[in-house]
Fold these 4 entries.
Entry 1:
Amino acid sequence: MQAQVQIISDGDSPRVKFGTGKLQEAITAEGIKTEILQSIPTDVEQRRISISIQGSDWFKENIAPQVRKKVPEKKEAFRIYSADNDIYAVGYDSSGALYAALELAERVKENKKLPDTIDFTDQPEMVLRGTAIGMQKTTLLPGRGVYEYPYTPENFPWFYDKELWIDYLDMLVENRFNSLYLWNGHPFASLIKLKDYPYALEVDEETFKKNEEMFEFLTTEANKRGIWVIQMFYNIIVSKPFAEHHNIVTQDRGREITPLLEDYNRKSIAAFIEKYPNVGLLVALGEAMSGIKNDINWFTNTVIPGVKDGLKELERTDEPPIILRAHDTDAPKVIEAAFPLYKNLYTMHKYNGESLTTYEPRGPWTKIHQDLSSLASIHISNVHVLANLEPFRYGSPDFIQKSVQAMHNIHGANALHLYPQVAYWDWPYTPDKTEKRLLEMERDWIWYNAWGRYAWDDERDRQEEIDFWSDELSEKYGGSRKVGRSILKAYEEAGEIAPKTLRRFGITEGNRQTLLLGMFMSQLVNPYKWRVYPGFYESTGPKGEILIDYARKEWNNEPHSGETPPQIISEITRHGEEAVNAIDKAAEGVSENIAEFKRLQNDMQAYNAFAKFFSEKVKAAQLVLEYDHSGNLETLKEAAKHLDKSLKHYRTLVDLTKDHYLYANSMQTSMRRIPIGGNEGRYKTWQEMLPLFVEEYENLRRNIYKLQQAGSGNIKQKKIEAWQPAEIELLSEKERYPVEIGTLVYDRMSAQIIDLAPELNRLTGVKFQEQEQVENGTVLKFRNSKPVKVITGYFDSEDPDNLVAPTLETNAAGNIRGQADITLANALKLDDAPKINIHTYRFEPGQHQLKLGKGRVLILGFIKADQKIQSRDVGVKGKRAIDWLFE
Ligand code: ADA
């Protein structure tokens, strides 16, 4: 039979060709016979569809001037129109033509036929719309640091699975994503060989070839779909064999930039540009280096020259974009210093940090976005690790649409970079406990659909959006539009819970915290002991009060302002209930994808149980804080009742998750600290957490009992033993001092110890010169024959002359010696100094150098590493924190 429709397109453009193929598939699926031609025949009668790029040679030869219509002059824009009986799908560029073909294919699918007449123009708002894939794993590889994962089939079997890539890339193009980022610490040693550093390569010959082949495959397939592949890397990391060869470490935040590091990295970057000319670079000047001077130096003297060297080899005179992340650096300063050398710089910054918390961002983090978007032509908003959404299903189009609006209107961003909704560290899987692991791209289809849809156009009418999503959902799960509407409601109600809870009660948006596992009472009543991430409260939500401020104001009868804790707990419990009601209502009409629907339903129940658990806990915490002001024991007893209730809901959460989830958080290392350390992959399920929450309840009960026994007097505290000091050999020429009342820790009278925690009584400190520490930092050299912990005292203040304690939000390696948590809060009092918190660094036997950044910090001595030490708030300065009630 003769073809009924002829599709005519420019076969030389891979994107046009790909779009043409997809359109043909859609038309053929409706039983219409098609043929593809390369040029427009003049003598046939069939209906013709041409797909073309406006202004191209092909266009000029094939599209008659009288049927040409204007396409907006914007990258990726397109117009589809009919004239006579023919259809013209014209793109401003090849991506525009691709999208025109796909749009037409979509319409054919929907209406089961080609349109009779049409004139439709479209163009994207966000110019880059990309997704992230972590070439990373849930745990560290033996002997390697964070982000150090060579590209090998053992580490990433899925990376070599071409079918999986095709599915993923198809999903991306369907949602009109046009960029794909691969994240890794130091990818170069898996992808290029250097003449001067042959030993740097960290994969075998066979793997190297496979990697070349996969990059070729991936970039070619991506390009067909209008997708630009971008490789991300962290600075300064070197490969393991390179480090071993030169007897250095692979990464060290405090390291100096040496000619060797410079040369190796510059050559790596140059070779990468030369070999993979279509792959972009995303640069993180952080984590494994520090100090703005170093950052600027590295970017301008190593990264940019490396890119330029590569371009020169290729005899290219254009400047492909280099994307700079604002993470852990002062990006506006770096960009300003780099502009004279390289013009085509894009910037990127995290949207709400490493969580999704608000569409009303403000504060210092918004300022970073605004500064960057006013400097660079393209500023990308990065929806980074979704630490507060793991592991349940998230798909609130309403929240997502408003977030994209905030990216444009508040931050000035014009591009999006999206992380997977869950399990970034475990891609391509989800944490669902199913017989066959679910693929994240499939489970979280709505996540990709929604962000892609609004990145393209965020000004869509809400009512029409409700209909659109209701239809999408009813198509997926069967049932009427009403059924779809109920599912949408469930998603949107549940979609408020984690954002609201984290921004009002969390310690950090960073993946240091896994919100949905819950929080301890101490974290609610004494959050600063858990090191609230500076800027978090001010940036990631509307103005409001955290619980301790709220309780104080209540007690003082002061007016409240903004979002309050009681408001949020009443809202989240309502959202939880509404979500469950809506999903249960939908359940009656669902007829397809039933197993997945049940999992979704279970997630809604889990969110509901979480909201109830959390709210009861907040009520308890509020009463505990009230007791702290009033001393009324009855209030504490009330608190215990709420805590008991919260446990009941937590048990429900355990029941709902134990057969449904493998874990809550995909980063399963000691970088996870809240609610509790995730060392060796522990405490990643609700079941594992439950006994700890029971214990804190029992501790409270026991302490109430003791308080009651003591009548109005104070209860007798357990005697606290001093930590056992350890023998070490100090290799730095330094004076030592006994850590006791009256000692001077610096050479000035006001640096005198006037009170201290009994734990510190037997220590012998190491004296440093204050000015020397502020200007050059602290270096402590010692030798030990048994494992020891170095006891350090960090000043709790914003004075830039004091060293900031290790911050995991910008330094994922900041806990490799167990130093990230405060071991003793408020543990030492000097005559004239802020509170001092104790952090400890563990060292195995050997010779060591502890290098700390610039600023005051106390080295209070060494203790035997394997003794049991209890973390607590000592309260030597000011009032003792109330969280002792839970110890
Ligand atoms: C933090 C976080 C890491 C990673 C990093 C980044 O250090 O803990 O997991 O996301 O930020 O690159 O932004």
Entry 2:
Amino acid sequence: KKDFSKLTTTKDGQLLLEKAAHDQVETVWERFEAQQPHCGFCEMGLSCRICAMGPCRIDPFGEGPSRGACGADADIIVARNLGRMVAAGAAAHSDHGRDLVEVLAKVAQGKAPGYKIGSPEKLRTLAGVYGLEIEGKSDTELAADLAHAMEEEYGTRQERLTMVNRAPDPRLELWEKLGVMPRGVDRETSEMMHRTHMGVDNDWVRLCLHGVRNALSDGWGGSLIATEVSDILFGVPKPTKSQVNLGVLKEDQVNIIVHGHNPVVSETITLAASDPDLLALAEQKGAKGINLVGLCCTGNELLMRHGIPMAGNHLMSELTLVTGAVEMMIVDYQCIMPSLGSVATCYHTKMISTSDKAGFPQMEHREFHPEIALDLARELVKEAVENYELRNPDKVYLPVEPVEMYGGFSVEAILEALGGTPTPLIEAIKAGKIRGAVGVVGCNNPKIKHDLGHVELTKRLIENDILVLDTGCAAVANAKAGLKLPEAAELAGPGLKEICQALGIPPVLHVGSCVDNSRILVLAGALADALGVDISALPLAGAAPEWYSEKAVSIGVYFVASGVYTVLGVMPPITGSMNVVGLLTKGLDDVIGATFDVEPDPDKAALLIRAHIEKKRKELGLDA
Ligand code: SF4
Ligand code: FE2
């Protein structure tokens, strides 16, 4: 019998892996195992298939070829491959942002029933950021103007993004000086694809610097637009209670899971799931209600704004279906394993894809557009309710109780908890009660025992009076471990515990989805402005203990480019070039005031982060 506790730290994960084995469902862990050993060239970033003279590979031991057919050496190949990872990640976040801007524009035109301006205040704040004429304008007029201004951010009409002006002045001056100021959201990604074409940019340093610019077009561009427009349409998150793990699925209710990233689809499903007619239909079918739950980041979006419960993170997505209790899973895009459709065939679960740009095997495609979204959402919820009758009770397995948690800590909510200004937080940092703050972010990856990296690192940090802000799959992992309850303050060091208890907040604050890492940037910028320093001077750090996706590469690069030291738990494919490794882990410090480190052991990663925070405190003269 297999020991599943080697694969995941979570009880629900272990028990459902056992059931998956029993039901003969193949999971990501088995497919991952079947890929071993990984190709050493690819692991080091030394294989290239950019053109048809290749594929080529460089021998890291110097016995075989040291150049590809075109003449590219290890540095060029590694830098090009890394650059394309950043481009793909930035494209994903930014295209998600664009979809929201499109909905905002349609709301302004009255062509998006089912959507509205959820936060007129935020609409006005953003209109201010863009310098729009606000006086005497209605919400819809302003929404039209703002959508138009944001559409321009994507193109080539300007020399720099307007949204980046929210970064502290010293950062802006530095980016300008280095020539990495992002000009257009799409432009930087497109230019990265151009530069990495055979025979264009063969200067690995410049390629890496363009990677910085490309990632900044995501963090302070596309992702920030995604976050802000989501707030405008669906409301600014406030602290809210919820529940997490597979126990949120209900044996006696119609269970619907939304999975993916963009709240555009999941918000309308939320509306439809509380439709009285559909609830009545559910009762007719013998169910006690309609239970909507989230997975991954679209789940984080709903949790942040409405307290909708969260079934799990990335590595739990197949296992949610293995419960046999899911009537329908509705997906949009990003991080949706193409295996899910085939897992669902073992149960009664209906699988629905909704985005014109995301297709999946063995799913039914029902395309969402703002004009028809609410009607389609109702149709789908109705079909899910009808599917309840087909559930086989013998196959249902829900062996755990959900864990309570709090989410919803937008920057606005954090400031409100502090009484309206960052001053109390700054005072607590100055007094050393809080040593610093760390963003623990990113995905799951079967290379790291599921959730171990996130939870152990977070525990070590809070024990040492470091406040943790988390997003994405990291946030779900920490919530499952019970760290998002005010009582978790007991696990914190004495200073952080005192502050959390005084404010009634957990020591680990759920800041949102992966695009909401932009909230961490905005908060870091506000702290830097309040202290009159650059972000790189602050006792802050980032960590992506279990990252897997290209989006996470872009996030890591924009954190570092914003002046935040960042520790990765999984090595990116760059070790084939010690020049690139040296630049990212050391050289960037002189240029941008922050670097990367790589440390899979969460205890050791915590030591690296603590040393960095103490160094920054000393430099700021905080403990003199
Ligand atoms: Fe080979 Fe150069 Fe073509 Fe890459 S770009 S596949 S290294 S010839
Ligand atoms: Fe995500």
Entry 3:
Amino acid sequence: QSAKAATKLAPTKEDYQKVYNRIAEIIDDADDYDYGSFGPVVLRLAWHASGTYDKATGTGGSNYATMRFEPEALHGANAGLRVARDLMEKVKKEFDWISYGDLWTLAGVAAVQEMAGPKVPWRPGRIDGFAAQATPDGRLPDASQGAPHIRDIFYRMGFDDQEIVALCGAHALGRCHADRSGFDGPWTFSPTTFSNDFYKLLFDEKWVWKKWGGPKQLEDKKTKSLMMLPTDYVLTQDKSFKKYAKAYADDADLFFKDFSAAFSKLLELGVPTQQFVSSEPWVMQTVDEQKS
Ligand code: CCH
């Protein structure tokens, strides 16, 4: 058997680990970008690729990677994600056998894990789809709204209140960009380290409406250097959301465990079970773990 024939075999976990490692390298090679990391924007790509899922119709989700196509690529919620898609295109050129849905979701896993977050079980099996499978605008949350809207959006995907609050803790990472969403600033003082700081700050700081010409957002009264979206702040105002947000502020381990489960579930939305290569999701190794 020639080596060429052998490469046609289905890719193994080791092959995907190589893709993971390349993604990790690219995320880190960001000297002139936000806080020196593409991790947050790549994580946001994985989330927006998956969060279009509609349980009732079975449409949307990460399966077909339809954000490659217009008009989905141009939906307001996806402003700025071109940066992440272009980075992933470099990986795709080197590993042309991987589907875009697998690549983008694996990148979300790598982003979380390499930024010191929990392990996120993941498995391949997504296939590339067509423009006709792109989802209509309006499936992703609107940050200017309140609890009923957040519930409408996330219940549609099949999440409950606890999962909603856990997922939103990803806002420990990255920042808002005025030229993308209109909002501006980071949520925490360590936007490239996965932590439960988002919840701690929500409860520990005094949040006031920012006086500016942009969309309604909150700023911390003390330093005026952090921000919260109206949808973030609602997690402390709605009784059911608040219970979970407080629990995550008090217990980082609980947050890590619940985030991992909810994020892993998010990344598989819309993918028919029979498409998955493995019956059990895999746990990919971090770059550091492979060094020892
Ligand atoms: Fe988010 N998010 N997100 N978010 N998000 C933004 C940025 C990030 C909402 C709105 C916004 C999740 C849930 C919600 C990230 C991960 C997740 C921005 C700023 C807005 C607006 C975009 C910009 O200007 O660049 C709303 C509303 C919700 C829910 O109601 C969930 C769930 C996740 C992941 C699990 C990450 C990471 C960022 C930072 C991106 C960056 O470029 O730094």
Entry 4:
Amino acid sequence: MRSQVAIIGAGPAGLLLSHLLHLQGISSIVLETRSRADIEATIRAGVLEQGTMDVLTAAGVGERMRKEGALHHGFELAFGGKRHRIDLHGLTGKSITVYPQHEVLKDLVSARLAAQGTILFEVSEVALHDVATNKPYVTFRHNGEAQRIDADFVAGCDGFHGVSRPAMPDQATRQDYQKIYPFGWFGILVESAPSSEELIYAQHDRGFALVSTRSPTVQRLYFQCDPADKVDNWSDDRIWAELHARLENHDGWKLKEGKIFQKGIIGMRSFVSTPMQAGRLFLAGDAAHIVPPTGAKGLNLAVSDVKVLTAGLVEFYRNNSEAVLQTYSETALKRIWRAECFSWTMTRLLHTFADATPFEREMQRAELENIAASPALATALAENYVGAF
Ligand code: FAD
Ligand code: DHB
């Protein structure tokens, strides 16, 4: 097989890249180890920045997002028994949409297939070759047969555990940055009406909690937990007791309970691998960087990487120039580091660190009080959250 771009991974980064390239007349083949049903059912992100919505809309895959997604103009910070609203739209002129990542994936997969795009699901033994040369190729197995794609470029969009980052040909000089947090998030899906019109990010001595939503009948809730804990240790009753304790406040607001139909624990890390290009191999999305989910940035960063990479590839095929591609890593990393900073800040601000001194706990509370008291600080938070720049 031959294609201009071989894309490893059918997550948001790989599928969007394939679609944006197609719109510019550039061919690609997407390889994915999992099945279509599996990627379309995996519950992950929920918050789309305005810039992400704009990219999806401009690419013609935003119709269902606009119809079924919920536009949120603000969110609440809860601490010390009170709630304080961050007026995203009032402070920045921008809003966010809560629309599940797997619905974005469904929209992208159907757009690719409708345009006769090639996505090969359930491939195995994916290996990258000669990526330091102008004739890279990828080998893999599909339907039991050994296959090969020859390409001009390879895009590594295969997430944190993929094969692309280890295949970067500059291993000796690469620089990785990492921070692993001493906690994780326990996430649940619940059949109930929303408890709140907007997301609630809650700081509490017992640990962080987050009230999010998926639809008028399905809610998404998270709470800080031990990353080594087991889902089986958490009965439904124990989960509700913990959420009530962390979300309790003095204004009579009550969390609505319902049938819990999904439970999972995710670990939390900050990670950046640099540079994001070596030879003809380009990394995008979680393959190159991870943020803790507190700032809701992961999916949005994958989209912004892909936007930058598409511009470079278009320049190459239109004007036979690699100038824009050569600046891909530098351009993408500027936004990535700022999002890393925001995600770390939100994580620090809202989680309970077991080893924090009483002084550090008071500093955390004072920082929240400062945001609640200062429109300037609230604006800075809102600008980062909506991705205003
Ligand atoms: P992925 O989605 O990981 O996709 C990579 C794909 O590559 C996968 O389908 C994988 O199966 C495939 N693959 C792996 N190895 C290979 C291989 N060898 N060959 C071929 N294919 C391979 N982000 C936000 O912006 N907002 C949020 O609200 C948010 N909330 C989150 C909540 C949770 C619980 C979690 C876990 C994440 C959240 N994120 C959020 C982060 C977001 O989900 C990720 O950043 C996003 O999925 C990154 O997309 P990606 O395409 O780079 O990688
Ligand atoms: C969701 C996930 C996040 O990481 C976040 O900050 C807000 C919402 C969600 O899955 O709904």
